[in-house]
């Protein structure tokens, strides 16, 4: 998926915050200042002060000389970072990956904007909400972090840049938009390079030699030629638990204890988040540098530690500790939302979704000697082998009903077995047939039931089925394959046994 | 006179119950429920089909296997009347799921387990019988010895799951701890007068062994979702030879 990033620039972050706290300051020009080398230096100014020519970096005494009624307020240390973090956490409602940049926020909006109906409504929503709060913000969305930031700070018209259009968007912007060090910016200005476009297509080696590697790196990152990563405020931790051991573990009991400890922590976290695992992997790192792993899967999402332990307990014999295991790593590789159903509610007759039953089936499926645990649902095909299909999940409900309008044998042979018959009259059931050397004279018969092959799926002949009963009362399902042709013997098969 | 016999019968019934109790037979709590087997149920202690025990079925031919599957299906339908799930464990599934619907069981409420070896089938059956969320578990096997059947019987006594063990072609029938040993054979169907074609499924149901009960032979047919006893023709009375063997 194509990556998209949004950059939010708070133009007067601390000043806006202060104005919110002290409404009296709203119509005054005021600055925040902190002592630097014995002088009070302005760190932030509000919009009104900025119109009077005061900007961050000025000394308070100079500013006071220019604007005598300027209010000076001490800058609390760490205020900017605290505010940005709080705003970043508020922004997690828009995307799970929010990072703090020096004077704003970076949002990884990949795959999030469609929930607000596109990038434009998404951008409008965030900007409106932040402005309503009283913050003066500018926001831009682009395919790279660098371009989004540059456009948010210096962009004139379009605030949403399509991926691939970074070059055009960047070229009219000043070099400072690339977040360069101030001396590199000054050197560029001295050389008459006032826009990014004027040096964008210069050879990279020349740029690196004159302005240092930083310029080239920032340029490449902004153009999407180099990767740039953000450090999310709330990282999404994987469902992994580690258990290092002081002494190498070599016994089954030791492995059991390790699994129990890992599961305890993992399941507590899963249960707290309302999730359950479907697959889990246990990796055992051995002293000799090798790694052995076992995996389990469950039929429904579960966070029941005792049950998962039982599944792993079946696999413990497969773990070969050799000289000893020094690190256990448990990873829940597939997670699903667990239904917070109260299982004890139907104590009487549980359906297939019952938790205890699901645990039994997981246990059976985990055993090495058992190769199939299946449940069947009706399928809309006449062809007997296709009249049922495997259920996808344990709780899947049948869409159609099971048909009972035609007789079907309780036991069906996986492959129809050829028989010898004596059938003198066409389209009549045979008089007798020979199966595995035994002769069966037929007393009663029903049929034929013609089942056409599904020509779009296979190339088998059509079948004419007969339900027959021999003189001992044994009931069979026979069919004749294909239709009558001149001089060709008909092939008959036995396909099943009736109750 | 008739009153006297009635009294006597009651007395005999009471005495039988006492005897069973002294022999250590515990009657199940929900003893009143019938599963529709009619006169066959009278062969069991207290005339109740033992739910929560192991039933052993013996068959040698695939035709008998088909008949037994149908018969078990009929019993399962009665057991699963109130919902629930059952397990069908075998080496390779030969049961045709859509057909079991003819016997009143929803095929999607059966979970089929396939295992490679008999040992694994037994393991799976024991695990299933320990789970009280199941109604029943059916296993298809060849051999089962006394100790293995005892383990199964002990498992069901706690969980009240009904276990069915179908032994096709056993080398040695042997002695088992099962509550009953059955043999089902297909019999010629009876069609209504003048109607051509194959009639309703009909079986010869033979109880070879019943714990604390009386073995016997019955003929049943399956009609409209229930077992219907067939009036026994006179010549069949001498059929169950095995039951005569005493001592």
TrEMBL record, chain A:
Domain of life of the source: Bacteria
InterPro entries documented for this protein: DNA/RNA_pol_sf, Rev_trsase/Diguanyl_cyclase, SulA_CellDiv_inhibitor, UmuC
Coiled-coil positions: none
Sequence ranges assigned to domain UmuC in this UniProt record: 1-73
A Pfam family the protein falls into: IMS
Keyword terms: DNA damage
Family to which this protein belongs: Belongs to the DNA polymerase type-Y family.
Name listed for the protein in its UniProt record: Protein ImuB
Organism: Parapedobacter defluvii
Organism phylogeny: Bacteria, Pseudomonadati, Bacteroidota, Sphingobacteriia, Sphingobacteriales
From TrEMBL, chain B:
UniProt-listed SUPFAM superfamilies: P-loop containing nucleoside triphosphate hydrolases
UniProt name for this protein: Error-prone repair protein ImuA
InterPro entries: ImuA (IPR017026), P-loop_NTPase (IPR027417)
Source organism per UniProt: Parapedobacter defluvii
């Amino acid at each position: 998926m194509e990556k998209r990033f949004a950059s939010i620039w708070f133009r007067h972050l601390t000043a806006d915050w202060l104005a919110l706290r002290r409404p009296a300051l709203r119509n005054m020009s005021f600055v925040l200042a902190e002592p630097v080398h014995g002088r009070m230096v302005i760190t932030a100014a509000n919009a009104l002060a900025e119109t009077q020519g005061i900007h961050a970096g000025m000394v308070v005494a100079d500013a006071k000389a220019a604007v005598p009624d300027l209010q000076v307020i001490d800058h609390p240390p760490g205020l900017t970072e605290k505010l940005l973090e709080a705003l970043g956490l508020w922004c997690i409602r828009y995307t799970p990956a929010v990072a703090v940049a020096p004077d704003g926020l970076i949002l990884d909006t990949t795959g999030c904007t469609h929930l607000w109906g596109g990038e434009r409504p998404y951008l409008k929503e965030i900007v409106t909400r932040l402005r309503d709060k009283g913050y003066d913000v500018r926001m831009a969305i682009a395919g790279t972090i660098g371009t989004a930031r540059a456009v948010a700070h210096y962009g004139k018209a379009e605030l949403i840049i399509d991926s691939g259009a970074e070059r055009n968007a960047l070229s009219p912007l000043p070099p400072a938009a690339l977040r360069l060090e101030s001396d590199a910016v000054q050197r560029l200005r001295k050389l008459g390079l006032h826009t990014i476009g004027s040096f964008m297509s210069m050879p990279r080696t020349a740029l690196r030699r004159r302005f240092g590697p930083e310029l080239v790196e920032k340029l490449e990152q902004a153009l999407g030629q180099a990767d740039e990563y953000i450090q999310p405020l709330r990282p999404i931790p994987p469902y992994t638990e580690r258990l290092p051991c002081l002494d190498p573990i070599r016994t089954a009991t030791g492995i059991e204890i390790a699994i129990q400890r890992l599961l305890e922590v993992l399941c507590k976290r899963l249960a707290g988040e309302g999730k359950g695992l479907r697959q889990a992997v246990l990796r055992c790192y051995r002293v000799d540098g090798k790694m052995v792993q076992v995996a389990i899967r469950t039929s429904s999402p579960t966070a029941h530690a005792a049950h998962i332990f039982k599944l792993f307990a079946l696999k413990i014999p497969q773990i070969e500790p050799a000289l000893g295991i020094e690190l256990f790593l448990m990873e829940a590789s597939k997670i699903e939302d667990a239904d917070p159903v109260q299982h004890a509610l139907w104590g009487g007759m549980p359906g297939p979704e019952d938790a205890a039953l699901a645990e039994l089936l997981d246990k059976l499926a985990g055993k090495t000697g058992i190769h199939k645990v299946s449940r069947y649902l009706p399928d809309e095909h006449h062809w007997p082998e296709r009249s049922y299909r495997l259920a996808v999940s344990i709780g899947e409900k049948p869409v159609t009903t099971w048909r009972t309008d035609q007789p079907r044998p309780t036991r069906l042979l996986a492959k129809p077995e050829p028989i010898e018959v004596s059938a003198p009259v066409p389209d009549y059931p045979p008089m007798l047939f020979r199966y595995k050397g035994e002769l069966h004279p037929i007393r009663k018969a029903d049929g034929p039931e013609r089942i056409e092959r599904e020509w779009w799926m296979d190339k088998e002949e059509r079948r004419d089925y007969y339900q027959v009963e021999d003189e001992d009362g044994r009931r069979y399902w026979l069919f004749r394959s294909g239709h009558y042709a001149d001089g060709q013997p008909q092939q008959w098969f036995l396909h099943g046994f009736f109750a | 006179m008739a009153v006297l016999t009635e009294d006597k019968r009651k007395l005999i019934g009471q005495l039988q119950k006492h005897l069973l109790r002294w022999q250590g037979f515990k009657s199940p709590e929900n003893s009143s429920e019938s599963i529709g087997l009619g006169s066959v149920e009278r062969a069991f202690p207290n005339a109740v089909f033992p739910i929560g025990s192991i039933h052993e079925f013996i068959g040698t031919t695939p035709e008998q296997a088909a008949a037994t599957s149908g018969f078990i299906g009929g019993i399962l339908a009665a057991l699963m009347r109130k919902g629930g799930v059952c397990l069908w464990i075998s080496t390779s599934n030969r049961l045709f799921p859509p057909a079991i619907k003819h016997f009143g069981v929803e095929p999607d409420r059966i979970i089929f387990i396939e295992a490679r070896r008999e040992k694994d089938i037994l393991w799976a059956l024991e695990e299933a019988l320990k789970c009280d969320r199941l109604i029943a578990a059916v296993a298809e096997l060849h051999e089962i010895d006394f100790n293995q059947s005892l383990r199964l019987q002990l498992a069901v006594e706690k969980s009240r799951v009904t276990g069915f063990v179908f032994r096709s072609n056993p080398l040695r029938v042997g002695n088992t701890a099962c509550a009953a040993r059955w043999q089902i054979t297909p019999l010629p169907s009876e069609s209504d007068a003048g109607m051509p074609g194959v009639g309703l499924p009909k079986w010869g149901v033979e109880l070879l062994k019943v714990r604390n009960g009386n073995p016997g032979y019955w003929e049943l047919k399956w009609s409209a979702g229930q077992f219907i006893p067939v009036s026994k023709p006179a010549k069949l009375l001498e059929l169950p030879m095995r039951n005569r063997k005493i001592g």
